[in-house]
Design brief:
It is found in: Endomembrane system; Membrane. The protein contains 43 helices and 33 strands. It has 1198 residues and is α+β, with helices and mostly antiparallel strands. The protein has a 9-stranded mixed beta sheet, with helices on both faces. It has a 9-stranded antiparallel beta sheet with strand order 17-16-26-25-24-23-22-21-20, with helices on both faces. It has a 6-stranded antiparallel beta sheet with strand order 3-2-4-13-5-11.
């Protein structure tokens, strides 16, 4: 990303003085002009060409073009290379120019926005690009913030203002910012014009949630934090006006600092192609050397005798030098084994696949009006090769819509409903929900089922009142009241919103806040608390506290946070209550609920004053401010009194168990990486069907030391630890997701996943143990253990640990990884994995912005992988196999011809045919196959997940398949040359003259080639569309049209030096012998392919063949069923098959055991060899004639 400002040395600190441009200019800070475009009119051509020739392929073809310009070595005209090269460069340049034009347009639109800047005591309209560091800007409601500003004052009391940060972090809820008290009174322009405060702060960085600085004014120091900053990209809301001091401008703003490029990802096919292209280039050099040696020998032995008739060129003085020149000539002629159109075609196909994902209506969420989006076009085929999925839990597997479900107050658990016999009532058996009609401010959408909690509130139970008082005070929620009594809460997290709403319904209504007060209606009485301090939540503290003074003057600290953190900070007198509450927490977590612990602490006035002073000094520190504040917070948040705990339900998303079951059948291993506590994660694992009761073992690793983490199994399974670990290790060495473990590490021969036996183990590990497991001396042991398990759940993990787990699997397993998440804490994991998927959920769009693909629900992942991913992989593999085949068949003819033309580098084909072969005659049919082909319909791809496995094993395009394609191409080229050569040696025309002339031979070979490769792609195409038909037959028609046009009188009259052979094509193709030769060549080239495929289908069909066969049987059986109904059957009874199949599939999805059995039964269907599929088809037809709804469909069951 280029930027307007020149590159400057890194800053150590930022100094900005208000209303003093002369002082600030000496630091040479960046202006507020941004430039994300790369080119201008003058630099576009040279810079773009320089970038394009960074690609090895483009440089290679430029080198060939230079060789072709040397007349001594070139037997081809320069345009045979320059036409496709210029076409590719032009297409890429147009794309780059278009992208850059829109970047220019966006830059100009942003840079030319108007802003009110205070200059010389007067507010003046200035363009954003002219705003400088140290300027004071006035913002009005609904305006974008022009730069990173220090908020000075606003129209709201106490210098408050409200902003929306959607462009920064994707969160649409409003956030509050506040000016420091000393500047909040500077609302008058005359006062602001005299303001000369100086800010010293941290240098520019990309941390959106942190800012550390100090304001020096009137010989005083005032600490500055992120709460005082308005960042560029935010929008001012519900605030009439505000003034701000520019601290960071343009490229130094946090928005621009965060706009770095995502790491470029390449697919395994890309990497393989690079290797193969190098091999092909080596093969090309070998052919050139062979033909050059042949030329030197021929010139020495034979050519020397014909010097009178065929003299050497002036520069050639020996047979050796002639061979040297011949080498370069053949490098030019044979370069079409790797045509430049290959790279263009690959990008076009990937673009088509991306559009299919974007257009898929079945991945469109109607509720959120959100389509699936392919945010990259380079990874589509890798979606068909995924072996490991790393998933977040909250918001990804669950809905992230929180509901207050249960709570524990003073040792009493509320939330369960019991019947008259004392048994816990299930949801369907529960009575009416609690009636909150006594509270006019209650949220009518809130439901709670246990009336005893409301009774405790109404009876005035002090513990219950204190519990809900804490929930109504300890938060950062913003309240908005559009009409009297209609409260709308804007919460930064769904958890916080659910807790404040619960307090609201039980009579403790958070009504409003100012920077220094919180107003709560407690059982109908308005009470205003003085807000003394907020000790905010972060990922390290995992708790939040507020310190308030009630109307009686009593100071109290209220705290809520994670149980693992808060329970260690309680007063020892609460031990008995702690034991009871811990039991309740374990019970809630076992039900999959998210828990928080609540506590309080009374503070005396003297201690608070002393503590507040130390907090102020820590906040003014220039270095280690965060650590000092953390220590101050740690001190006051100790020896607290336990109040109770809350339990919030985060329901599973629709279709999650079915999706996980289906992906498991596709041999994809799913690891859940979550920050939630262990019990909650395990319960969600059971709900998702990742963990099942019929598993052999579920190993739980909760160690805090290296020793406990190293030998987890004996700690978890007393009685049979060694046996369990032995079984796991044996499983690990035998099967590692379809590969043996050693094979994965040493790249030796692969084992079919169809033969793999899935382990019945699961591993649950917490963050402490994981930290040890990821150390260098233990990571392989951990990986071996985890990969032997069918399911892995890592709980209490940090965002960094998520990325480390993904990196570990990438490092040691030859497997494609996919990470999926919905929050900012998933971004590192998403960027680390081969493929990153973002869920556009409740936590903003940070994950989406960092992802390669995005959609709104986890269940769409099965369609992304099993349909789009599998098809993309299949299409790309078939495209590459065919592309290499057709180009070797085309190019190798020159090699054979060299032995019959004195190794003179004479071409077989006309030079125009060489130019047009790859960009006109054969480009569109293979593109159509690469974009539209499919082996089985989408329903069958979802119904038979085992079809996904060839991509995981990389079976469809690998080095072996490549050599098979090359061998077929060489075989075709041999027949393509020697059959016409043999025929032409003795053949005559209708008038008795000799048929064998160079031009007639060239037309015959070229026509045979185009027909053979067209028939071959017809055989390779598994799914015919109108576009396939049009492109294949249209390409043939275009070939003949161009052929006859080039040999016509019209072109000869216009370009007599270029098109000399008038009427050659017409005369040649008028001969029956020529057509017989073409037909013979086509049949001999194609028949072995047809025979091989027939025998393979007959003797060893793969799973897709089996599915197509069963589909054919189904269609025939249904057709016969319809005929029989029309002829002899009356009544309205439905087909028993259709009904039982749907019911069976639903049961299959919901039952893990049935799914495994069905899957293995289906896979074994492919290994039968006792009878042919034709005999089976005949048998099925006879069976269906006697029983129309019977046995034909049995293999489809499950």
């Amino acid at each position: 990303m280029a930027l307007c400002a020149k590159k400057r040395p890194p800053e150590e600190e930022r100094r900005a003085r208000a209303n003093d441009r002369e002082y600030n200019e000496k630091f040479q800070y960046a202006s507020n002009c941004i430039k994300t475009s790369k080119y201008n009119i003058l630099t576009f051509l040279p810079v773009n060409l320089f970038e394009q020739f960074q690609e090895v392929a483009n440089t290679y073809f430029l080198f060939l073009l230079i060789l072709q310009l040397i007349p001594q070595i070139s037997s081809l005209s320069w345009f045979t290379t320059i036409v496709p090269l210029v076409l590719v460069l032009t297409i890429t340049a147009v794309k780059d120019a278009t992208d850059d034009y829109f970047r220019h347009k966006s830059d100009n639109q942003v840079n030319n926005r108007q802003s009110q800047v205070l200059i010389n005591g007067i507010l003046q309209q200035e363009q954003w690009m002219n705003v400088c560091v140290g300027d004071i800007i006035k913002l009005e409601n609904n305006q974008f913030v022009a730069a990173d500003l220090l908020l000075l004052s606003s129209s709201e009391p106490h210098g408050l203002c409200y902003i929306e940060t959607a462009e920064l972090d994707g969160e649409t809820n409003m956030k509050v910012r506040q000016a420091i008290p000393v500047t909040s009174e500077l609302g008058d322009i005359s006062k602001l014009a005299k303001f000369d405060g100086e800010v010293i702060c941290e240098p520019p960085n990309n941390k959106l949630d942190k800012f550390s600085g100090t304001l020096y004014w009137k010989e005083n120091k005032f600490p500055l934090s992120n709460q005082n900053m308005l960042l560029r990209g935010c929008v001012l809301r519900n605030t009439e006006w505000c003034f701000g001091l520019v601290i960071f401008a343009g490229p130094d703003t946090k928005l621009m600092q965060n706009s770095g490029r995502t790491k470029f990802k390449r697919t395994s096919i890309d990497r393989l192609m690079n290797t193969l292209v190098l091999w092909i280039f080596g093969f090309l050099v070998c052919m050139g050397v062979i033909l050059a040696i042949g030329n030197a020998i021929w010139e020495h032995e034979v050519g020397a005798r014909f010097q009178v008739y065929l003299p050497w060129d002036e520069a050639v003085d020996s047979a050796f030098f002639s061979g040297f020149l011949s080498f370069w000539s053949y490098i030019i002629i044979l370069n079409t084994v790797v045509p430049i159109s290959l790279y263009v075609s690959v990008e076009v196909i990937r673009l088509g696949h991306s559009y299919f994902i974007n257009w898929d209506k079945k991945m469109f969420c109607m509720k959120k009006r959100t389509p699936a989006e392919a945010r990259t076009t380079t990874l589509n085929e890798e979606l068909g090769q995924v072996e490991y999925i790393f998933s977040d839990k909250t918001g990804t597997l669950t809905q992230n819509i929180m509901v207050f479900n249960k709570c524990s107050i003073n040792g009493h658990s509320y939330g369960d409903v019991f019947d008259v016999l004392g048994h816990k009532a299930e949801l369907g058996e529960r009575p009416e929900p609690v009636d909150f009609s006594f509270n006019p401010l209650a949220d009518k959408k809130f439901l709670f089922w246990d009336p005893s909690l409301l009774e405790a509130v109404k009876m005035g139970d002090p513990h219950t009142h204190e519990f809900f008082r804490l929930l109504s005070l300890c938060h950062t929620v913003m309240s908005e009241e559009k009409n009297e009594g209609e409260l709308y809460y804007k919460a930064q997290s769904p958890d916080e919103g659910a807790l404040v709403t619960a307090a609201r319904n039980f009579g403790f209504v958070f009504r409003s806040r100012t920077p220094k007060t919180i107003t709560v209606h407690e059982m109908g009485t308005a009470i205003t608390y003085q807000l003394l301090a907020i000790l905010d939540f972060n990922n390290i503290r995992k708790r939040m506290s507020v310190i308030v003074r009630n109307p009686e003057g009593k100071i109290r600290l209220y705290c809520k946070g994670a149980d693992t953190i808060l329970l260690d900070r309680l007063h020892h007198s609460t031990q008995e209550l702690l034991n009871t509450t811990t039991d309740h927490l374990n019970e809630y977590a076992g039900e999959g609920l998210r828990t928080l612990v609540l506590a309080y602490k009374d503070l005396d006035e003297e201690y608070y004053e002393e503590w507040a002073e130390r907090r102020l000094q820590a906040s003014l520190a220039q270095d280690s401010r965060e650590d000092r504040l953390a220590g101050i917070y740690e001190e006051v948040e100790s020896n607290m009194m336990l109040l109770g705990a809350t339990a919030i339900e985060d329901k599973l998303q629709q279709g999650v168990p079915e999706t996980i079951a289906l992906l498991t059948l596709a041999n994809i291993k799913i690891w859940v990486l979550t920050g939630d506590k262990q019990e909650t994660a395990v319960n969600i694992g059971y709900s998702c069907k990742m963990l099942t009761d019929d598993m052999t073992e579920v190993f739980i690793v909760t160690g805090h030391t290296v020793l406990e983490a190293r030998i987890p199994i004996p700690h978890c399974c007393p009685g049979r630890p060694l046996k369990a670990r032995e079984k796991m290790m044996d499983s690990s060495r035998t099967v590692g997701n379809g590969f043996t473990y050693q094979e994965k590490l040493s790249s030796s021969k692969l084992t079919s996943v169809l033969e793999a036996v899935a382990g019945e183990y699961a591993l649950v590990i917490n963050g402490h143990s994981l930290a040890h497991a990821l150390e260098a001396d233990m990571e392989l042991e951990f990986l071996e253990t985890a990969c032997a398990c069918k399911a892995v759940i890592c709980c209490r993990v940090t965002p960094l640990q998520k990325a480390q787990v993904v990196e570990l699997v990438k490092k040691y397993k030859k497997a494609v990884t996919l990470a999926i998440g919905d929050g900012a804490n998933d971004v590192s994991m998403i960027k680390t994995a081969h493929i990153g998927v973002g869920i556009s959920g409740q936590e903003g769009i940070q994950a989406v912005l960092a992802s390669d693909y995005s959609f709104s629900q986890f269940k769409f992942l099965q369609r992304l992988l099993l349909v789009h991913g599998r098809w993309s992989y299949l299409r790309m593999c078939k495209f590459l196999c065919y592309f290499f085949y057709k180009n070797f068949a085309f190019t190798m003819v020159h090699f054979w011809f060299g032995f019959f033309c004195g190794f003179s580098a004479q071409t077989v084909y006309d030079q125009y045919f060489i130019t047009l072969y790859n960009i006109v005659y054969t480009s569109l049919p293979v593109l159509a196959m690469g974009v539209f082909d499919q082996d089985v319909p989408e329903q069958r791809s979802m119904e038979y997940p085992k079809l996904y496995e060839p991509g995981q094993l990389n079976l469809l395009f690998n080095k072996r398949e490549f050599f098979i394609c090359i061998a077929q191409g060489i075989y075709t080229s041999v027949l393509m040359f020697f059959i016409p050569y043999g025929v032409f040696a003795e053949a005559t025309r209708d008038d008795g003259t000799q048929l064998a002339d160079y031009q007639s031979f060239a037309v015959t070979v070229a026509t045979s080639l185009v027909i053979v490769v067209s028939v071959q792609i017809g055989l390779d195409t598994g799914y015919w569309t109108a576009i396939n038909h049009f492109f294949i037959w249209g390409s043939l028609a275009v070939y003949f049209a161009i052929l006859f046009a080039m040999h016509s009188n019209g072109l000869f009259d216009m370009f007599p030096n270029q098109f000399r052979f008038v009427g050659n094509a017409q005369n040649t193709l008028a001969q029956p012998t020529v057509w017989l030769t073409i037909v013979l060549t086509t049949v001999v080239c194609i028949m072995p392919v047809v025979a091989f495929r027939f025998l393979r289908l007959h003797l060893k069909p793969d799973l897709s063949d089996t599915v197509r066969y069963t589909q054919l049987v189904r269609k025939k059986q249904k057709a016969q069923h319809r005929c029989m109904r029309r002829v002899g059957r009356t009544g309205s009874r439905r087909s028993g098959y259709a009904f039982s199949h749907q019911e069976g599939f639903g049961e299959l999805i919901m039952s893990g055991k049935n799914m495994r059995l069905s899957s293995l039964a289906l896979s074994s269907f492919t290994t039968r060899s006792s009878s042919s599929w034709i005999e089976s088809l005949r048998r099925k037809k006879s069976d269906s004639a006697s029983s129309p709804s019977g046995g034909a469909d049995k293999p489809l069951k499950g």
